[in-house]
Amino acid sequence: MQRQRRMPGGRPRRLMTRLGLAGAVGLLAAGLVATPALGVGGPNHGGGPGHGGGHGPKPDPVPSAELTGLEPTGADMPTVGGNLGNQHYSGLTQITKRNLDRLAPEWETHVSAVAPASDDTGQQTTPIVVDGVIYVDTPSGGVIAVDGKTGAAVWKWEPTEFAASGTRRGVAAGEGKIFTLADGDRVVALDQATGQQAWVVQPTGPNGEFLGNFDRVATVYWDGIVYAHAANGDRAAVVALDASDGSYLWHFFGGPQRGVVYTDVNGNSVDAGGTWGELLPDGTDCALVGGSTPWMHGAVDPELGMYYMTFGNARSCTSSQNGSLRPGDNLFSSTLVAVDMTTGDYKWHYQSIRHDVWDMDNVHPPTLADIRVPVAADGNGKGKGKPKTEERKVLFYGSKSGHQFVLDRTNGTPVLPVVDKPMITDSRQAHAETQPFPVNRLLPECIVYEPLDPENIPGDPWRAVPNYNGYQPDAEGNLVFNPESYVKADEPFLTYPEGSSGHREGCMYDPQFDLPILSTTSQNGGADWSNNAYSHETNLVYYPYGTNPVAHYNGAASNGLRAIGQYQTGGILAYDASTGEVAWQNHLGTDMSHGQGPLVTATDLLFVGQIDGRVLAMDASDGDVLWDFQTGSGIAGAPITYEIDGEQYVAVIAAGSTNPYGGSITAGDSLWAFKLGGDYRTASGSQEGPDTSPLTIRRPVSGAAVDGAGVANTVLLARTSRTADTAAARDSVATNAMQPTHLRVPVGTTVTFTNPGAETFPNFPNAKEHCATQFFEGEFAFRLQPGESATHTFDRAGEYFFNDCTDPRPTGKIEVVLTPTDVPGALTFSRSSLDLMARSGLFTGVRGTATAEFAIPAGHRYESGAVLVTPLGRTPVEAESVKTRGGKLFVEFDKADLDQNVPTGSTQLTLRANFLVGGEQVQLTSTATVTVVK
Fold first, then answer.
1. What share of the chain is helix, strand, coil (3-state, %, to 5)?
2. Domain co-membership, 765 together with 828
């Protein structure tokens, strides 16, 4: 059963493609701090293992609830990765494709509302389950324990002697404790049964070394050790602590000390600190201030005795985008490192990007598996004929890059073929001449240049914003390379490998220096920090991704400029673990790379959340969406599944986050649990939450909207101020160098675009040609010399982005709006009672359509945009179908879309639609009252 939905903005939500089968102690201890957690509930909620929740003995057989290496999880899901190998795979089988239509919410807990209550919303965490109790970070950065059967809180911890670490991505459990992080670089252990603080430490190295800023990263526990990762700092480490008291055991830095030689299990040796170039004249060692932070949790292999951790990009001497002062590979940046899990002794490493100047670090949690692969598929890709297969212990590594390395986790050598590809280099950047690429790539390697055309909206998910990389529109709107554009200034420094086109096409690792070069996948693309999942049933790896091409250049904020005006979307794909080939891809239409990790079950169901609030159940074999549920707030963590009293549950925390949609995301604090036949209902009478606010899918311009009448409906090109007549102000290349950047005008307005000359700025007029290139519709493409102007009349509502061909960073937007006219009495419904009852009693059983009838005024012709504004939904409900007959507009709405957005009883609903009157676009509304029955 699939309920059809659309992505925000009314565009088709699914774009499905199917392809062929893919030491010493040194710490500051705060001691046993006596701050208690708040115990919640009566005798049925004593907390901790065996908490007396009335669950009774677990039925037999139930898969193991213990911490496991690579085995499926069962009744519990005791780590943020599911098992220690981060497979996010459950062996539970009660919920299947056959009975999925009976899956419904059993309870919802607003975790911030539990005392000590707060109004905090937003969190990026994934829950864990131990002995039927869910442990999860609260939006404020505290921890709450919740009965997995009833949703009742067992205890809640919020620190009082120090602040919480606001952003969190998960806790760990072991030895009767829950391990978390807090402000001031603290690692905290809580009593699992009561939530009271057991110990608090601020780890340092054996000689008092600062180990980095411990915040946000999920903790990992195994065999008496807590692994904590520093997410930020000039130099950051993974630290191992004794779980009994928090005492220091060992640490490993991503920025290595110069002169220390690392010899791996294959006999290869390297002075990793020496790969950062010579000391700078002032004595700075770039490796020691280089970032290389391990900002996501690692994986444990109990059988091999190894801990696997990923380190982020170099960002020192001078920045993440400028590598000129740190020549060399810059180990261990953008590198996966394996160490002895008990001693921290180095075992091996694999660097995914040499000398990273793009913030393309592959730092998602590594995933482990034992798989069978063709014998011929060694690191060299040799072999002929039908290959035999052998079992290999592998690790899947790679996120932002849009590909994955399948490595032998015993020694770090590639199991599936990897090639060293020659790269375009810039002599100013000390680029590596080659980079490693898996032979089978998951996502496109280059951006796509599509014609500017109103019929091609939004177009290819990886389409380029015009003017970047010198690709400018011709008379027909085709983006073609102009060798005389701004990129020409880089040519004396570039070296192209044999077979290159002779210019940069926006492909991964294209070089940049002072000028912006747009490429994919980007620091916000690929899988970024979302986890993967691996299924023992399908042998597929499930890879969520985002599409967000970025322009890199020295001084770029946030490690690169996500091109303003581009569509920020994403989806999920699956690839064959044994071959690396993509099996299927479902482009869901929202970014899936910022915590929206999947969970896969033994019944070939794939559960995943979206930032628009939806939880999806997909067919793990082909990617079809079989079930979806609206929680009412964005999801930025992975779902979990567990079993109590013989019943399987699926749970997810819907709290929201900000990346990449900023304040448009609906944040929340809801922990939801689902089971077959779940009977929870919200205040509206529906089982679902109301639709979330519309997402700002397109990368927004800076600045608030400016009324057009206040600036004579005029935009000044390449200026950040309408009054500053200074040398620094002329010919600006700042992103807000369209003045104003955001102009709001009514439909029918003529806007003037001016390249200001001496008439406007007599002392320092612009000296260069500038453009206003509208995208992606291609409404206009003005090239203006200083002093020249051009006009365009906007006859349709919408948002119209434009940028400059002289330098593509300055970007503006014209927001064209309609003022709605109310037509009292025009709206009726075919039935006065809106029956949203479900025969099954579950939200999945709401069927049928509701028909709204709108009397069209004389002289009006329906054009577009028919929606229903509801009392509860933050986004209007889009029509299923619109027909005109006999002077009336008949608009059908799916009852399943209306259900969660309207309350029971007398309810007002407003129809809104766009019409044409003599070619002029107008908007009409009308409101009617109906009685809603559920």
1. 5, 40, 55
2. no
Using DSSP's 3-state secondary structure scheme, residue 829 falls into strand
Contact 243, 175 (CB under 8 A): yes
> Cα 584 from chain centroid?
20
Helix and strand numbers (H, E) in the chain are 1, 66
Determine contact, residues 656/121, Cβ cutoff 8 Å.
yes
Q: Are 205 and 229 in contact (CB under 8 A)?
A: no
**From the centroid of its chain, how far is CA 19?**
24
- Strand pairing category for 827-829 and 849-855: antiparallel
On whether residue 733 sits in a domain, the answer given is yes
C-alpha dist (Å) from residue 414 to 227, 243, 304, 410: 26, 34, 18, 11
Residue 299 lies in a domain: no
Structural domains counted in the chain = 2
| Chain center to CA of 56 | 39
Other CB atoms within 10 Å distance of the CB of residue 334: 28
> How far apart, in whole angstroms, are the C-alpha atoms of residue 115 and residue 554?
48
CA-CA-CA-CA torsion sign (774, 777, 780, 783): positive
DSSP 121-173: -------EEETTEEEEE-TTS-EEEEETTT--EEEEE--SSS-B-SSB---EE
Assess if residue 594 is contained within a domain. no
The predicted-structure confidence for 419-478, as pLDDT tens digits, reads as follows 999 999 999 999 999 999 999 999 999 999 999 999 999 999 999 999 999 999 999 999
**How far, in Å, CA of 755 to CA of 761, rounded?**
11
pLDDT in tens, 674-715: 999 999 999 999 999 999 999 999 999 999 999 999 999 999
Q: Do 810 and 824 share a structural domain?
A: no
CA dist 789 → 546, 764, 772 (Å): 39, 18, 10
The pLDDT value given to residue 385: 58
The DSSP letter of residue 365 is: P
Cα 685 from chain centroid? 32
Cβ proximity of 300 and 275 under 8 Å: no
In this structure, the answer to whether residues 787 and 847 fall within a common structural domain is no
Looking up tokens 């051009």 gives 790
Pick out the chain residues at pLDDT < 50.
1-63, 379, 381
Query: How far apart are the two ends of the chain, measured CA to CA in Å?
Result: 21
In the numeric block, which tokens belong to residue 546?
Answer: 């985002």
Indicate the length of the chain as a whole number. Answer: 934
Is 809 within the bounds of a domain? Answer: yes
Burial class (CB in 10 A: 0-12, 13-18, 19+), 635: buried
Q: In this structure, are strands 920-933 and 833-835 parallel, antiparallel, or unpaired?
A: parallel
774 and 756 in a common domain:
yes
Distance (Å, whole) CA 575 – CA 583: 5
Range of the structural domain that residue 868 is part of: 820-932
DSSP characters over 27-72:
EEEEES--PPPEE-SSTT---STT---S--SPPSS----S--SSSP
Looking at the structure, do residues 781 and 889 belong to the same domain, yes or no? no
CATH number for the domain that contains residue 796: 2.60.40.420
